[in-house]
Design a protein that fits this description.
Blueprint: E1 2-4, H1 5-12, H2 20-28, E2 35-37, H3 44-65, H4 70-145, H5 155-165, H6 169-182, H7 187-204, H8 208-239, H9 244-250, H10 259-278
Antiparallel strand pairs: 1-2
Helix pairs in contact: 1-4, 3-4, 4-8, 5-6, 5-8
């Protein structure tokens, strides 16, 4: 953005009552000498000093070179003061817009980063799912041979085993309780399944905990909606806040629902998730 101080000055002085000599003098001034460039990085203090300098230069030169009466000089001085105020307001308005635009750009960049991150995460899960697909089939064959019910290959059982590797017994029990909601639980079958996965990691010569983590990620494509809620409820035992609104705000989707929808969702959420877990 550029401001031509000379042209602004000419716009403000009354042409009909201004001596022709003053008008001629102003028109003959080189525009380039009175242009102030404003950029987002411009220092406001330096800009104000330049404005005062340019306008004071015009004022002093006009009053010295042209034959003005005291009243005319006083009038020109008032115009200069008003012009200073006007240009400063223009600059302040411009800088406010720059701040708003900068904030908007940062917000947009953040949203783009989230989209890129989500896309990357989605592609990651897809790749894991494809690579681990033959391994999952192999695990089911081994489970059949060991007479382990197929439903033990479950994301919550996998999370239970992973929590054990991190000595997080509270989380281990939490995911077992989730598993018990819809399945018959047998401690012996759990140990058999655990030994099966552990032996598999040894045969593949890979880390047991990382293998579990990747198997969990593979299942996220099928259980992402429940995983989101159950992981939140697990964390809520530390925060003492298991409200649905907290979860929605945490996931940045609270605004996606209207109030009647939230009331219904909250009722279902408490009945089928919070209350069910509290009974286990």
């Amino acid at each position: 953005m550029s401001i031509n101080v000379k042209q602004k000055f000419l716009q403000m002085i009354p042409v009909s009552s201004t001596p022709q000599a003053v008008l001629d003098f102003l028109n003959n001034l080189d525009d380039d000498d009175y242009i102030i460039n404003i950029t987002p990085s411009s220092n406001e203090h330096d800009l104000i000093n330049k404005i005062h300098e340019k306008i004071d230069d015009i004022n002093s030169t006009v009053t010295v070179i042209t034959s003005l009466t005291s009243l005319e000089k006083e009038h020109i001085g008032k115009i200069c003061s008003k012009l200073k105020d006007l240009i400063i307001k223009i600059i302040e308005s411009f800088q406010e817009k720059i701040i708003i635009l900068t904030d908007n750009v940062k917000t947009l960049e953040a949203k783009v980063d989230v989209l890129v991150e989500n896309q990357m995460a989605s592609k990651r899960l897809k790749m894991i799912a494809e690579i681990l697909s033959p391994l999952k089939k192999s695990i089911f064959r081994d489970m059949l041979m060991e007479q382990i019910p197929g439903y033990y290959y479950n994301v919550n059982i996998l999370k239970c085993l992973y929590s054990s590797t991190k000595n997080d017994m509270n989380s281990k029990d939490f995911y077992i309780n989730i598993f018990k909601i819809d399945n018959i639980f047998d401690e012996e079958k759990l140990h058999l399944f655990q030994n099966l996965i552990y032996s598999l990691s040894g045969n593949l010569n890979v880390q047991y905990d990382i293998l579990l983590y990747l198997l969990i990620d593979k299942e996220k494509r099928n259980f992402s909606e429940h995983s989101l809620i159950f992981d939140f409820l697990n964390d809520s035992r530390k925060t003492n806040d298991n409200k649905l609104t907290t979860l929605l705000k945490q996931e940045h989707i609270y605004e996606a629902f209207n109030f009647p929808e939230l009331v219904i969702l909250d009722t279902i959420y408490n009945k089928y998730f919070v209350n069910v877990l509290n009974r286990h």
